[in-house]
Amino acid sequence: MTRIADPAAGTRPGRGEASPEPAALTPNQLILHRAKRHPGLQIGGAVTLLIVLAALLAPWIAPHDPIQQDLLAKLRPPVWDPKGGWDHLFGTDIYGRDFFSRILYGARVSVVIGFFAALISAIVGSAIGILGGYFGGRVDAVVMYLVNVKLALPGLMVALALVSVTGGSILALVLVLAFLFWDRYAIVCRAVTQQIRVQDYVQAAVATGASNSRILLSEVLPNLTSQIIVLMSLEMALAIIVEASLSFLGLGVQPPTPSWGLLIAEGRQFLFFKPSLIVIPGIAIFLLVLAISLLGDGLRDVTATEGKE
Amino acid sequence: MKNRLTMLAAAAAFALGTHGAMAQPAQDKLRMAFEFPISTVDWYQDSKPEIEMISEAVFDGLIAYNEATQQYEPLLAASWERVDPVTLRFKLREDVKWHDGEPFDAGDVVYTIGWLTDPDTKIRFKANWKWIKEARKIDDHTVEIVAAQPTPHDMMRLAYGTQILPEHVHGKLADKMAFRDNVVGTGMYKVVGIDTNAGIELAKNPDYRHGGTSKPASNIGAVRIVSIPDAGARTAALLADDVDLLRNTSFEEAVALSADPRFDMTVLQSVSFMYLALDALGKSGNEALKDERLRRAIMEAVDRQALRGARTGGEPEKRSPEALCWDFQAGCAYSEPLPPFDPEHAKQLLAEAGYADGFDITVHTFGSTRDYGEIVAGFLNQVGIRASVQPMTFATFRKLQADGQLGVFVGAWNAGVGPDVGPSMGLFFSGDTRDYYHDPRLIELAAQAQTETDPKAREAIVRELLDTAVRKSYVIPLAGIPIPVAHKAEIAITDGRNTPYAFHLGDLNWKK
Amino acid sequence: MSRFLLQRLCVSVLVAITVSIIGFALLRLSGDLARELAGDNATPADIARTAALYGLDKPVVLQYFDWLGGLLRGDLGRSLFTNESVAVLIAERIWVTVVLAVGALLLALGIGIPLGVVAAGRPNSYVDRFALTLAVFGQAIPNFWFGLIMIVIFGVWLHWLPISGSATPLHFVMPIVTLGLSVMPQFTRLTRSGMLDALGSNYIRAARSKGLSRRRILFRHALPNAILPIVSLAAVTFGFLLGGSVIVESVFALNGIGYLAYTSILRQDFPVVQSVMVLVSLAYILLTLVADLINARVDPRLRPG
Fold first, then answer.
1. Residue (of C37, C279, A72) closest to B375 by Cα position
2. Residue B503 in this model has a pLDDT that exceeds 80
3. What are the backbone dihedrals phi and psi of residue C110, each rounded to the nearest 5 degrees, phi first?
4. For B357, how many CA atoms within 13 A lie in the half-sphere containing its CB?
5. What is the pLDDT of residue C36?
6. A interface residues, B as partner, C-beta within 8 Å
């Protein structure tokens, strides 16, 4: 079977030289203790929170309707331009729509698509992985076959083809992206479940006649949650980038819905004359993905147990 | 408006001023960039407007249409006559040579028509030639083309898109795709090289003398065409002096570019036009659209005047369609004026139909009409119709269209390209899955318009057809499609072609 | 060993067949292509004729086996729109994508591995922080955006590099940097974590106690122990790059198979799409197979019972 290395592994500080940790802490206190000393986690968490808040509150804080056109106010410059004004903080686009409002609503698109794609792929992928890891044998063979098929497919091309057939609705995109990202969960959950299955407490539960579903839910799953959450944040960052890429190619979110990738695609025409239309959404994507990645890396570091990568 | 454009232009001059050396025409060679990769110059193999533009310069048809005089003119044929209602006899020119030096004659014409009408030939749009029964060689320089039945747009089909192929090259190929490795035509440019990655290289054909006034040769010695899919990268290529001409650009960008002394802009007009079609059958499940008053309200809510300036910085277009055909097209006739822009009356109609609170609707659009679709939705929202836009990919468009899902559709149509109304009638009132009105009378009229050869009778048919479509608010034209072109200041572009691409290669010249 | 090989081969073949079915079915989910091919003024009869001419009227299962048979004979069929041979279409373009993928992979390995080694050598130092920051940045920058910005700076302002096309090796510099940067971070991370594991092992402690130089320990003793997963990742990444360079190809006007697939998807030219997809998948399956065999040879523990 193809062994898949986890490319996101290993940002944890070297365990040999890490700052000494107080010995007598409960796991939760330990996580808190580590989190307080992890600037990456804090910065990532803060920026993510800020963007998620902006996305949630967009209808209340956006100064304008993001799709309302004003053909007489096309291509206004942003506020830092001498000709700009506070009315349109980031200026306006080719249809005279307020660019700041479009960026705010764009955050919604990115966050919603990224989150639900990560969530659905987490549920599906983890379930598949746990089943394979727990039952082994034929079930596991089927799971590995599915994972191998998924890995062998050129993901971006499949996504492009699927979106071209289904159209770029938000729901379709979430499902397509979920399809792209379930395999990592399956691989990780399968490996960890295989380890857990042979542990004494699981064997004891089997001996007392507990049902499989009960063991899976009360013994196996709790041991996986922290890893699934870490994976989710990293995969969400990836999903956001891929959504932006699909939208950039015209096969993602469809206008006038503002997606950051789409905004960059629309701004290409003005690469030289209105660079703000392309620089701002680019920075927005960068910041969000950076923040979520930092958050994910940080979560991995603070929840990691000794001796397990 | 003007102010802001000047400002944009000033900003541009600043942005570009970093290296403002004036570029010279690079060794008498014009360099252009297409959006899509091109691997052929043969329109029969790939029927994109871009390919049509090159194909037209490499090959010739029997006749040409002069847009200025609105007359058919000789090209490979020196003269012609109508022998009977189904037979056209062409006297061919005797001085034309193929690019490889072989003489052109009747055999080439008979071969080409035979190949186009062969049931086993795989090319797109074969329906364009289904009116032809056969081509007959009378002597070495005389051919007859026989139609299956009287066909009013026969001359148009022969002048547009029916290029003559060399029998001695094309005819010998078992795999017609191999033609691109040895392209031989009669046109003003010869193909020097076609390479998927390096692009297409053309050189002037010194023997080209048969173009007359409708197809004069350019003074540009060589042409190189590459593909650059990304809009930003295309502009960058113009600025970095990799290409000399930018067709797929926005009006605003063209204005900004022309502030640089190296560049100029020309606004041309495509033969295509934008139209608004409504689902009068209620196929899409929107019962509201079955009500004629509501359809009228939608049409009166749209400010076509504003649409027409959307791609020209507010300036009126060179020409706007007043019906689903252009006035220069044979058979084009109409009396019913298009619905006026009257948002108040539109609201009143909505109220009368019981939709005072408006209703929800999706405006479907795809490809190049996306911006117009968005603007139309903007107008509908202003009279209380809650319109959202759904731009589609080509694939989803065809699927939704066939499934009867399109409620309000904003699309572009190339007007059938040639100077005849026939193709447009066949498109809009086909009676099949594309037809969202399915009006039996209109379908009958559209069929008659394809075969009626008496010009007066044909105009009467088309008039009834188009007037009914407007009166019942099925489908109306919205605007023409202006094509802003940014180019090196040394290039002059002659305006006035009736093609989707808006110009031919021969319309580009170095300024003298 | 032979049993492992046989088992591994069977899985690969099974996966390849599944992938071919998916690739074949994807675009057929939609649309009536015969109508599109027949033209704007085609009657239902014309459309039926066109469907028959292109073999679109046959049952889908039959169409699949026709295609599969052709595939095995090396005949990939023809583009529905231009009638060009799909094999020729791909052959003319594949080298562009391969050059791009190899270049990006070499760049990613060339920077990613040393960076990971150095970072692991001094955990939590500035070097380590820098390496990790670079890794996170590289993942967060959308590559289509980065490509455009590079075009503006290096192509238009500085005039250092050509912007589009594949005419000279210089044309590949910006695309390779763009693509390489996006896959580099995972190598840095994997190298670093593998190195940390290796450095913590008894074997390295022993080497240290013998007083070997730090550099020698890092590169001669620890790295070889950390390299196996990197080989696997390189194989996976190469497969990914073959199918994932669509955006870079589109921004830098490179006619590779990624862009070919994209334009073909846009017009539902499924003979082209299905063949490109299956070829990329096969390349991936083959690469991972080879990587697995290398791993199994070097480290027998990895062979399943």
1. A72
2. yes
3. -65, -35
4. 0
5. 67
6. 68-69, 71-72, 74-76, 83, 94-95, 163-168, 250-251, 254-256, 268-274, 278
DSSP for B96-157? -B-TTSPBP-HHHHHHHHHHHH-TT---TTGGGGTTEEEEEEEETTEEEEEESS--TTHHHH
| CA-based nearest distance A253→chain B, Å | 10
Whether A152 and C285 lie within 8 Å, measured CB to CB: yes
Chains touching chain B through at least 3 C-beta pairs below 8 angstroms are: A, C
Cβ pair B230:C250 closer than 8 A: yes
- With a pLDDT cut of 90, the percent of chain B lying above it is 52
ipTM of the complex: 0.88
**Average pLDDT for residues B44-59, to the nearest whole number?**
90
Q: How many CA atoms lie within 13 A of A155 on its CB side?
A: 24
The CA distance from A72 to the nearest CA of chain B, in Å, is 7
Nearest to A291 by CA among A83, A94, A55, A67: A55
Structure tokens given for A112 = 């919603």
The tokens of B233 are what?
């990268």
**Residue C42 pLDDT > 70, yes or no?**
no
Cross-chain residue pair B391–A269, CB shorter than 8 Å:
no
Confidence band of B109 (pLDDT split at 50, 70, 90): very high
Q: Would the CB atoms of C11 and A1 count as touching at under 8 Å?
A: yes
Evaluate the omega torsion of the peptide bond into residue A256 and state whether it is cis, within 30 degrees of 0.
yes
Picking from B124, B177, B395, the nearest residue to C31 by CB comes out as B395
Q: The whole model's pTM is what?
A: 0.84
- Secondary structure element (H or E) that encloses residue B79, with its range: strand B77-84
State phi, psi for B366 to the nearest 5 degrees: -150, 160
Phi first, then psi, for residue A252 (nearest 5°) are: -125, -135
pLDDT in tens, B359-375: 888 899 887 787 888 88
pLDDT in tens, C91-149: 999 999 999 999 999 999 999 999 998 888 888 788 888 888 888 888 889 989 999 99
Asked if C168 contacts C162 with a C-beta cutoff of 8 angstroms, the reply is yes
Q: Mean pLDDT throughout C171-180? A: 95
Taking the CA atoms of B26, B32, B37 and B39 in sequence, report the sign of the dihedral they define: negative
Q: Give the distance, in angstroms, between the CA of residue A125 and the centroid of all CA atoms in the same chain.
A: 14
Bridge-based pairing of strands B386-392 and B360-366 is parallel
Other C-beta atoms lying within 10 Å of the C-beta of residue C157: 16
CB neighbours (10 Å) of residue A238?
A: 21
Q: How far apart are CA C253 and CA A210, in angstroms?
A: 61
Mean pLDDT score of chain A: 84
Residues with Cβ within 8 Å of residue C196, at least 6 apart in sequence? A10, A14, A15, C120, C123
